């Protein structure tokens, strides 16, 4: 179980960073890169939301780096929880998933940066320094998409059916695509089975699907396409 707190007097003047990822290799890699900077220090590691919130409340790091997919939790919801209790704390979200789908959700949840994991080793330090100046860090492609929206460009404002889902609906849709049954989703998200079924009904309506079988088929197809990107 990952639950590490690394803090001593020599690090007091350094920017303190918490890494939240359920893969030890990723945490070790990020720690090595970040600690190589003389003014940055990884003060703790966690593998899920429960551990992360405990360390956040105890150490109050300057920056929290979060994987969007965590063990028994979700990076978007964790970001919301952190920002609810620590408004000025900067959050950076990492993901292997398509940034065109997830980046906006992460930023709306309160994150200051969104990084694709395949580029994190080159960009994590730059992202940390950017959010510390209270600026947003995203890829050029995402920045262009946001600028289209601001300008009112139809190409930038038209939402796909998936983008129209709320964060919770999207989370459940993704779990359906990964093969989770309603009872398993309920347990994972700490919801009742009835609540999950209500969300499934909303998903069918929003995605214009007339059966649970079609919802399952659509979710599996979409999830597989995301995994192959």
Give an overview in words.
By secondary structure, this protein is α/β, with parallel strands linked by helices. The protein has 2 domains: 145 residues, Response regulator (Rossmann fold); 61 residues, Winged helix-like DNA-binding domain superfamily/Winged helix DNA-binding domain (Arc Repressor Mutant, subunit A, Orthogonal Bundle), CATH 1.10.10.10. Helix 2 packs parallel to helix 3, helix 8 crosses helix 11 and helix 9 crosses helix 10. The two termini are 30 Å apart.
Characterize the biggest β-sheet: 6 strands, mixed
- Proportion of helical residues: 40-55%
Task: Quote the beta fraction.
Answer: 15-25%
How widely separated are the two ends?
30 Å
Could you provide a short overview of the structure?
The protein has 229 residues and is α/β, with parallel strands linked by helices.
Question: Helix and strand layout, with pairings?
Answer:
Layout lengths: L2 E3 L9 E6 L3 H12 L4 E7 L2 H11 L3 E5 L1 E2 L2 E2 H11 L4 E6 L3 H11 L3 E4 L3 H12 L8 H12 L2 H4 L9 H11 L4 H8 L3 H14 L5 H16 L2
Parallel strand pairs: 2-3, 2-4, 4-7, 7-8
Antiparallel strand pairs: 1-3, 5-6
Helix pairs in contact: 1-5, 2-3, 8-10, 8-11, 9-10
């Amino acid at each position: 179980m990952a639950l590490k707190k690394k803090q001593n007097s020599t690090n007091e003047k350094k920017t303190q960073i918490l890494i939240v990822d359920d893969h030890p290799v990723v945490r070790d890699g990020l720690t090595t890169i970040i600690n190589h900077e003389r003014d940055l220090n990884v003060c703790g590691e966690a593998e899920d939301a429960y551990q992360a919130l405990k360390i956040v409340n105890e150490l109050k790091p300057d920056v929290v780096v979060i994987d969007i997919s965590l063990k028994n939790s979700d990076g978007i919801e964790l970001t919301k929880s952190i920002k609810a209790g620590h408004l000025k704390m900067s959050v950076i979200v990492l993901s292997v998933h398509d940034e065109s789908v997830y980046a906006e959700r992460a930023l709306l949840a309160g994150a200051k940066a969104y990084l694709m994991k395949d580029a994190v080793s080159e960009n994590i330090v730059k992202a940390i320094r950017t959010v510390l100046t209270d600026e947003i860090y995203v890829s050029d492609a995402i920045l262009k998409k946001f600028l289209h929206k601001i300008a009112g460009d139809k190409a930038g404002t038209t939402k796909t059916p998936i983008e129209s889902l709320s964060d919770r609906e999207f989370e459940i849709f993704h779990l359906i695509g990964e093969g989770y049954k309603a009872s398993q989703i309920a347990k994972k998200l700490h919801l009742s089975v009835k609540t999950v079924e209500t969300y499934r009904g909303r998903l069918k309506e929003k995605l214009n699907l007339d059966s649970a079988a079609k919802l399952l088929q659509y979710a599996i197809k979409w999830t597989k396409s995301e995994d192959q990107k």
